[in-house]
Amino acid sequence: MTVVTRFAPSPTGFLHIGGGRTALFNWLYARRMGGTFLLRIEDTDRQRSTDAAVDAILDGLKWLGLDWDGEAVSQFGRKDRHAEVAHQMLAAGKAYRCYCSPEELTAMRDAQKASGQPMRYDGRWRDRPDSDAPEGVAPVIRLKAPQEGETVLKDLVQGEVTVQNAQLDDLILLRADGTPTYLLAVVVDDHDMGVTHVVRGDDHLTNTFRQIQIFNAMGWDLPQFGHIPLIHGADGAKLSKRHGALGVDAYRDLGYLPEAVRNYLLRLGWSHGDDEIISTEQAIEWFNLEGIGRSASRFDFAKLDSLNAHYMRQADDSRLVGLIAPRLEADLGRSLTDADRDLLTRAMNGLKQRARTVVDLAQSARFYLAPRPLAYDDKAAALLDDKGRATLAELAVRFANEVDFTAAALEAQVRAFAEERGEKLGKLAQPLRAALTGSTVSPPIFEVAELLGRDETLARIRDTAVAA
Questions:
Q1: What DSSP character marks residue 133?
Q2: Which of 51, 169, 406, 446 could potentially form a cystine with 120 if both were Cys, beta carbons 3.0 to 4.6 Å apart?
Q3: pLDDT, averaged across the chain
Q4: Dihedral (CA of 134, 135, 140, 141) sign
C-alpha cells in the first residue's frame, strides 16, 4: 500500500501554528514512507473563505519547507461530485429528504434543552414518504445513520475509542440549496484522493465518528485515523495569541528560521528518545505515528528561542545577510551596497554567535553600517568620559602606526598599553567598544576594528572627541 496523507486547511485566515504542526506530521509521514502528501483547500464556506487566506496558507507551507505533491485541490471545485454521492446514498436508501423548517428545528432544540436532553435532530422525517412533504419547502438530504450498536475507532494516536451510535444523529449531507456540507465533502474527497492516513487535531474526533458513517454507507474502505492532541500555552491553558497562537508568517516576521520552527513543532508532541536537535533529514528517517503523545503539548517561546539560536549559528553567513538586509535597509533608509553586504558577510560569524533571532541579528549588525557620528546608548556614553577619551586618543595613535591592522595585532597593542598603565585589558577595551559600536555589547572588539578597517576605526574614535 502506498501511503497517502493530506493537509486540509480552511482558508478563513492565516496558517495557524497548530495547522503548521499538523501539516508537518503529515508531510514527514508521507516522506518517511515513500508516499504522497496532498494539499486540499477546504473552501466550502464561501462567506468566510478568501483568496488572501489561500495565499497565506500556501506561502506559510512553502516557508516551512513543506512541499506537496501535485496541485492543491479546491474542495469547492468538487461540489458537484459531493452532491452526486449524496444522491447515490439517497437512491440506495442510505439517506433521506428532510423537510423540517428552520422554525421546527429551533422548536425541537428548545424542547430538548428544556427537558435536559442532548440537542440533536430527532429523525422525524427518517421514515416518512416524500408524499408528506409540505409545499414550497426545499428539503435537505440527511444520512440515515445507524441508531443501534456502537462505532469503534482504532486510532493511531488515541488508541481504541468507542461511541454509541445512538449518540450520533442523522447529519445533513446536502443543504436545502443543494450545496454539500463539510462532513460529506471531506469523506468524498478523502476517498477519491486515495487518502490512506488522516492525521489531524483531536478536536476532529467527534467529526470522525460521523464521517465513518458516511464511509460505511458508501461501502468505502476507511482510512486510518490519528488524532493529535492540541497545543496549549506554557501555563496549560488553551493556546491563544498571548501564548503564540499566531500565523506561521508571524514567526517569520519575528525572526525565526524555518528549520528551527520545523524542529520545534516536531518536538511539540512527538519524541525520539532525548533528542532535541533534529535535522529535517533525521526527522524524515525517524518519524512515526507511534511517537506522537496523547497529552496536550505546551508552547514555550524560550525553547523556540534556544532552538532558533542553535540554527542561527549553523546557518550560512550569506543567507543570514540576505535575511537581515531588508530590515537594515528599512532602518537605515537606504539600500545596502555590495561593500555593505561584503562587510556584513565577513562580520557574520561574530554576530550570529549571540543572536537568538533574525531581528536580534539585524539589530546587533546595525552599528557596522550606521552613519557617523554614532548614537551612543547610556552605558556607552558613560564610558566616553574624559578618562575614556584620553585612553582612546592614545589608542588612536597606536592604531594609526600599526602596520598589521588585524585583530591579533590590535589586541597586542592594547594589551601592551594596559600593561604600561597597570590596568586590565577590559578597562581599555570597553571605551574602544563604546566608540566603535555605540554600545557596551558587541562581537569581539578587535575583530570589529579589523572589519571596520583603519580609516573607519580612527574616524569613529575621533568622533568621540567631537561628541564630548
A1: P
A2: 169
A3: 93
A4: positive
